[in-house]
């Protein structure tokens, strides 16, 4: 197993460097200290025997998204709901569909005997879907009522109420990230309409692919509507960020250890700028191209805390 070394300072975190040359000078100095003091464990060095899924990534330029958080409700798509009536008034002879049953387009729902011709005809399903309502029983007259209601849930609609303070920033075509209980999906705002109640609220609608049946009509979803993107010189994944001794910090790879396969990581205080659900801009403390721990940085934090506790005693 790859062995890792986490390099820290006894007096706390390394301060943000003014420039890259200064940082490289500090690195050489810290490595020199490690070489001479490791035997006495005076340098705050901690050794771990496993990588624990630690992933390193380069700090790079990129974009940070500006978003508006909204809460919406999933509803059936109006284009995918069908209210089925009899073509001619008559007596219902047979009913062949029940509530909750999945129906294919063209499948027979009922057979009716026409009042005029006294001949039987069938009532087929116009769409694929689930029977969500039924008002037909054998021996009843059809009248002009709806006999069955079918809904195709393979595509749903997310309705997002937008209040006046946010309405000016929401536009048709903006990307939407939907999240709920560990699930996520991408969508796009397809329409904006006033609320039917007359309240000063605009309803933004986004189509939601539900081919795998992951979403249910009626559930509430959190949505992040992307309203803009800003280029930044350095950005990192949010999973890299750890609070260490009251400061926003990350772990940066700074070199190789004494033994083959060992790597040195340094706890580094940083200053953040813009942030979104996935990335954050780094204003100070990290240069483009430096390697930082993007995933499972908590493992290094735990080792750092154990090392600090051992020194205190």
The structural domain count equals 3
SSE ordering: EHEEEEEEEEEEEHEEEEEEEEEEH
What is the averaged pLDDT score?
83
Give the biggest beta sheet: 6 strands, antiparallel, barrel
Which range does the strand content fall in?
over 45%
- CATH C-level category of the largest domain: Mainly Beta
Q: How are the strands of the biggest sheet laid out side by side? A: 4-12-15-14-13-16
Shape: elongated
How many whole angstroms does the radius of gyration measure? 31 Å
In CATH terms, what is the fold-level topology of the largest domain? conserved putative lor/sdh protein from methanococcus maripaludis s2 fold
What percent of the residues sit in helical stretches (DSSP H or I)?
10-25%
Q: So, CATH architecture of the largest domain?
A: Beta Barrel
Number of helices: 3
Distance between the amino and carboxyl termini: 30 Å
Class computed from helices, strands and strand pairing: mainly beta
Multimeric state: single chain
Number of strands: 22
Any low-confidence stretches, pLDDT <50, length ≥5? 1-47
Structure overview:
The protein has 313 residues and is mainly beta. It has 3 domains: 4-62 and 232-312, conserved putative lor/sdh protein from methanococcus maripaludis s2 fold (Beta Barrel); 66-77 and 154-230, Beta Barrel (Elongation Factor Tu (Ef-tu), domain 3); 78-151, Beta Barrel (OB fold (Dihydrolipoamide Acetyltransferase, E2P)). 12% of the residues lie in helices and 48% in strands. The protein is built from 3 helices and 22 strands. It has helices at 20-37, 164-167, 297-312, and strands at residues 4-7, 46-48, 55-58, 60-76, 81-84, 90-95, 102-103, 108-114, 120-124, 129-134, 148-151, 155-162, 175-180, 183-194, 202-209, 220-237, 242-244, 247-256, 263-269, 271-275, 279-284, 291-295. The strands form 5 sheets. The chain has a 6-stranded antiparallel barrel with strand order 4-12-15-14-13-16. Strands 2-1-19-18-17 form a 5-stranded mixed sheet, sandwiched between helices. Strand 17 (242-244) and strand 18 form a beta hairpin. Residues 1-47 have low confidence and may be disordered.
């Amino acid at each position: 197993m790859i062995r890792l070394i986490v390099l820290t300072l006894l007096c706390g975190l390394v301060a943000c460097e003014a420039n890259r040359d200064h940082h490289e000078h500090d690195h050489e100095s810290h490595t020199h200290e490690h070489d001479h003091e490791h035997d006495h464990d005076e340098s705050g060095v901690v050794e771990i025997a496993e990588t624990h899924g630690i992933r390193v990534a380069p700090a790079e330029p990129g974009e940070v998204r500006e978003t508006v958080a909204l809460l919406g409700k999933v509803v059936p798509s109006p284009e995918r709901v069908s209210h089925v009536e009899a073509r001619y008034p008559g007596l219902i002879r047979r009913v062949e569909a029940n509530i909750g049953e999945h129906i294919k387009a063209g499948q027979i729902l009922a057979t009716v005997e026409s009042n005029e011709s006294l001949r039987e005809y069938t009532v087929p399903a116009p769409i694929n879907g689930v029977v969500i309502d039924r008002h037909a029983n054998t021996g009843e007259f059809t009248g002009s009522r709806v006999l069955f209601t079918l809904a195709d849930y393979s595509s749903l609609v997310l309705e997002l109420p937008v209040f006046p303070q946010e309405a000016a920033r929401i536009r048709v075509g903006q990307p939407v990230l939907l999240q709920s209980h560990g699930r996520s999906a991408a969508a796009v705002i397809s329409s904006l309409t006033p609320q039917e109640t007359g309240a000063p609220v605009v309803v933004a609608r986004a189509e939601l692919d539900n081919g795998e049946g992951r979403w249910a009509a009626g559930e509430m979803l959190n949505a992040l509507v992307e309203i803009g993107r800003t280029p930044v010189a350095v950005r990192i994944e949010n999973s890299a960020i750890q609070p260490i001794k009251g400061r926003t910090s990350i772990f940066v790879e700074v070199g190789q250890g004494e033994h083959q396969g060992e790597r040195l990581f340094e706890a580094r205080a940083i200053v953040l700028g813009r942030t979104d659900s996935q990335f954050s801009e780094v204003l100070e403390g990290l240069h483009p191209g430096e390697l930082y721990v993007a995933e499972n940085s908590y493992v290094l934090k735990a080792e750092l805390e154990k090392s600090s506790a051992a020194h205190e005693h």
